[in-house]
């Protein structure tokens, strides 16, 4: 695989409304590429009112497939690769319909341009919400199929034969009767002049030869041999290295700086003072860090100097005492509660969480009077470009952004704060400067998964089955800040996912959300934001109901899944493969959870062991998933494995706390990540499905947390209603 840098294209469209439907008209446009080959551009609608447009003026290309006269097939990739396998699975869609080998498809990073490269499901140029495959599934297959049809038509015209007598095969067009063959590259120029077919017939799933089969990751060789370029690897000629100290309290400012000792460090070139940060610019990172340690900074802590997490939690808890925006209402919750024989109530809470990706925040900037050039790994490139332009005081066409592979995104790099900070520093530096955050800065100045507090209750009938379900929760809304048009009537789809549209048949249900923004604490997307909180609450509380009804947790759930056959199938499969019901040693337990999130159905069974000192070890995780049509089963398995590790980390260790306005966690010693020797065995079982693809990047993260907490209850009889695990609660008397 080749991943090239590409010069930026600019657009005056910074924010686009979300798009729910793909236009079937004017899908592809054809033209002659600069190389004399075939250029195909996907056309996606972005009408202001969400209705299908009737004119071409408001349609914009989203992604490009180029077939050159040299036979090269280049896909300009509108999504970014951060370890999730996008740069293998999406080319598979093109290769399948175009009838070429996967290795023939070369990739280029898409430049920032929301008009061309907006995600059709989000309406903005972004990789997130586990929807890269969901967004690309039809558009890129149509692109490949259309290209194939036009190439076949061009060959038939050249041979003066019926196109129906020709077929595409391994990058060539073959005439069935005579056996004549001609390569795509030789046909590219002619194909570019062929009329674009009004409609195309996509391959039937039973005819797939590539989609659904294991494919080796195209990006693996470069990552193994060290030639892969991440944002932190960018080294334009003459680049200097900078690192920084930002106000330890969000909203604080620099009061005084003594930089004499820092300037004396060998290799330090300059000290840059900003209103809320100080940066040390040096020849290399070692000198920059030594200079940073030598700085003497006096801070003005500002209005949040006394803030702590207890204060934030108290505000959230009080907020749930008042009505919120109704996210979903089914039946009559008051009547259902009144008719219930038994009532069960509980409160749950989840903490702030950091992203803590292996590649810390970084951005390289070369700012000149006439323009700005940026090297970065970012999940929302057009936003990064717009933020850089605004910070630098330049127009968009003066800002060139090179995107790179990302060493762990998890939602953190949907934000542009790192780019803004780098441009602020670059204003004071002559030549390019690479700004790299230390691990401490990365954790203590993250934008965190929000803290949430839930107040839940249920009413059970004489058989112990739920006849009423009520959930009111409070916390931050990231969508309200990140994509304001999607925040309506006090609600957004991200914050409520996993709390509404449950797989269970509940006759009376009420879910309310109260938006509460923590003072001064920045919140942002974190691998499965809404579901990471809501599925923990929903599945933990469902376990509580099973206990109250004195029923087996799996049997109890199955009785409620009559209207959700896909959910029932994954639960039965996971339970069977995990050996549910088989005897376990003392202090070892199994826990289950099930969800429909990101368009995929998933069930997980976790097997945990609790030691005398309260230490929890997750020994085994069995996962069954129905994610619709599978493009690359190897990627699905890898995504679930990594998500389980990420979610298990959150369940056992993840917590960001504040005292006196300062984040207490600093590095991996105080913000612990699951170690290799702590990793559970993970088994993945994929249900064959003909449904449209669902998302996979985040689903496993949200499903594992309640499975672990429910397993802890099975092992100890102690119910945990907050994460992470409190070992003191689980300790056994000596």
Question: Can you offer a commentary on this structure?
Answer:
The chain has 734 residues and is of the alpha+beta class. The chain has 3 domains: 3-225, 2-Layer Sandwich (Aldehyde Oxidoreductase, domain 4); 231-302 and 361-436, Aldehyde oxidase/xanthine dehydrogenase, molybdopterin binding domain (Aldehyde Oxidoreductase, domain 4); 309-352 and 448-730, Aldehyde Oxidoreductase, domain 4, CATH 3.30.365.10. The chain is built from 20 helices and 29 strands. The strands form 7 sheets. It has a 7-stranded mixed β-sheet, sandwiched between helices. The chain has a 6-stranded mixed β-sheet with strand order 1-6-5-4-3-2. The model is unreliable at 1-28 and 41-63 (pLDDT under 50).
What are the SSEs and their pairings?
Blueprint: E1 3-4, E2 28-32, E3 38-45, E4 59-67, E5 73-77, H1 86-98, E6 105-109, H2 114-117, H3 132-159, E7 166-169, E8 172-175, E9 181-183, H4 184-192, H5 220-225, E10 240-246, E11 253-258, H6 260-263, E12 268-273, E13 277-282, H7 285-294, E14 296-300, H8 309-319, E15 325-330, H9 333-339, E16 342-350, E17 362-368, E18 371-376, H10 381-392, E19 399-403, H11 417-426, E20 433-436, H12 439-444, E21 452-460, E22 466-475, H13 478-482, H14 493-496, E23 509-515, H15 529-548, H16 553-558, H17 565-578, E24 588-597, E25 600-610, E26 616-626, H18 633-652, E27 658-659, E28 662-663, E29 681-686, H19 699-716, H20 727-730
Parallel strand pairs: 1-6, 5-6, 10-20, 18-19, 22-23, 26-29
Antiparallel strand pairs: 2-3, 3-4, 4-5, 7-8, 8-9, 10-13, 11-14, 12-13, 15-23, 16-21, 17-18, 17-20, 21-22, 24-25, 25-26, 27-28
Helix pairs in contact: 1-3, 3-4, 10-11, 15-19, 18-19
């Amino acid at each position: 695989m080749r991943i090239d840098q590409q010069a930026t294209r600019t657009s005056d469209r910074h924010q686009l409304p979300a798009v729910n439907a793909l236009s079937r008209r004017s899908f592809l446009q054809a033209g002659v590429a600069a190389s004399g080959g075939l250029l195909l551009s996907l056309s996606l609608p972005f009408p202001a009112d969400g209705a299908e447009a009737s004119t071409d003026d408001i349609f914009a290309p989203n992604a490009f497939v180029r077939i050159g006269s040299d036979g090269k097939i280049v896909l300009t990739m509108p999504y970014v690769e951060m370890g999730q396998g996008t740069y293998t699975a999406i080319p598979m869609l093109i290769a399948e319909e175009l009838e070429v080998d996967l290795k023939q498809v070369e990739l280029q990073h898409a430049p920032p341009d929301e008009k061309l490269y907006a995600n059709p499901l989000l309406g903005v140029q972004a990789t997130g919400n586990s929807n890269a495959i969901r967004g690309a599934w039809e558009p890129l297959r149509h692109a490949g199929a259309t290209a194939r049809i036009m190439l076949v038509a061009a060959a038939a015209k050249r041979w003066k034969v019926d196109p129906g007598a020709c077929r595409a095969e391994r990058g060539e067009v073959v005439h069935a009767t005579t056996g004549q063959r001609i390569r795509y590259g030789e046909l590219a120029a002619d194909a570019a002049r062929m009329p674009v077919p009004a409609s195309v017939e996509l391959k039937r799933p039973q005819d797939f030869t590539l989609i659904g089969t294991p494919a080796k990751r195209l990006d693996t060789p470069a990552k193994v041999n060290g030639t892969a370029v991440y944002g932190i690897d960018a080294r334009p000629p003459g680049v200097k290295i900078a690192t920084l100290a930002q106000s330890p309290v969000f909203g604080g400012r620099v009061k005084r700086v003594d930089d004499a000792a820092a300037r004396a460090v060998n290799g330090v070139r300059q000290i840059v003072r900003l209103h809320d940060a100080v940066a040390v610019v040096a020849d290399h990172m070692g000198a920059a860090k030594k200079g940073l340690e030598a700085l003497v900074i006096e801070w003005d802590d500002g209005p949040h100097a006394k803030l702590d997490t207890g204060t934030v939690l108290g505000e959230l808890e009080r907020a749930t005492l008042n009505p919120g925006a109704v996210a979903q209402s089914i039946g009559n919750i008051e009547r259902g509660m009144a008719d219930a024989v038994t009532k069960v109530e509980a409160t749950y809470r989840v903490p702030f969480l950091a992203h803590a990706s292996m590649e810390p925040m970084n951005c390289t900037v070369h700012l000149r009077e006439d323009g700005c050039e940026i090297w970065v790994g970012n999940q929302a490139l057009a936003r990064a470009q717009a933020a850089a332009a605004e910070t630098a005081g330049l127009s968009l066409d003066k800002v060139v952004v090179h995107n790179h592979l990302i060493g762990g995104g998890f939602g953190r790099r949907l934000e542009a704060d790192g780019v803004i900070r780098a441009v602020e520093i670059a204003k004071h530096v002559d030549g390019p400067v690479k700004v790299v955050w230390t691990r401490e800065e990365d954790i203590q100045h993250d934008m965190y998964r929000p803290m949430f507090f839930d107040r839940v209750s249920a009413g059970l009938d004489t058989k112990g089955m739920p006849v009423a379900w009520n959930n009111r929760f409070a916390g931050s809304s990231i969508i309200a800040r990140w994509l304001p048009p999607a925040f309506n009537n006090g609600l957004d789809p991200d914050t409520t996912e996993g709390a509404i549209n449950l797989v269970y048949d509940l006759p009376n249900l009420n879910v309310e959300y109260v938006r509460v923004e923590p003072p001064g604490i920045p919140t942002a997307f974190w691998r499965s934001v809404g579901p990471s909180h809501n599925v923990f609450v929903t599945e933990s509380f469902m376990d509580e109901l099973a206990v109250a009804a004195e029923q087996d947790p799996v049997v109890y759930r199955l009785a409620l899944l009559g209207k959700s056959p896909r959910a029932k199938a994954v639960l039965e499969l996971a339970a069977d493969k995990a050996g549910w019901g088989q005897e376990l040693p003392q202090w070892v337990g199994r826990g289950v959870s099930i969800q429909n999130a990101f368009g995929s159905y998933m069930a997980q069974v976790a097997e945990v062991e609790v030691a005398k000192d309260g230490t929890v070890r997750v020994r085994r995780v069995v996962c069954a998933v129905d994610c619709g049509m599978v493009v690359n089963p190897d990627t699905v398995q890898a995504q679930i494995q990594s998500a389980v590790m990420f979610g298990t980390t959150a369940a056992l260790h993840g917590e960001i706390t504040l005292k006196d306005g300062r984040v207490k966690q600093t590095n991996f010693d105080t913000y612990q990540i699951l170690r290799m020797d702590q990793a559970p065995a993970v088994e993945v079982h994929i249900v064959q499905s003909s449904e449209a693809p669902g998302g996979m990047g985040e689903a496993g993260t949200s499903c594992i947390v309640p499975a672990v907490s429910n397993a802890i209850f099975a092992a100890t009889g102690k119910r945990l209603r907050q994460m992470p695990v409190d070992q003191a609660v689980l300790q056994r008397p000596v």
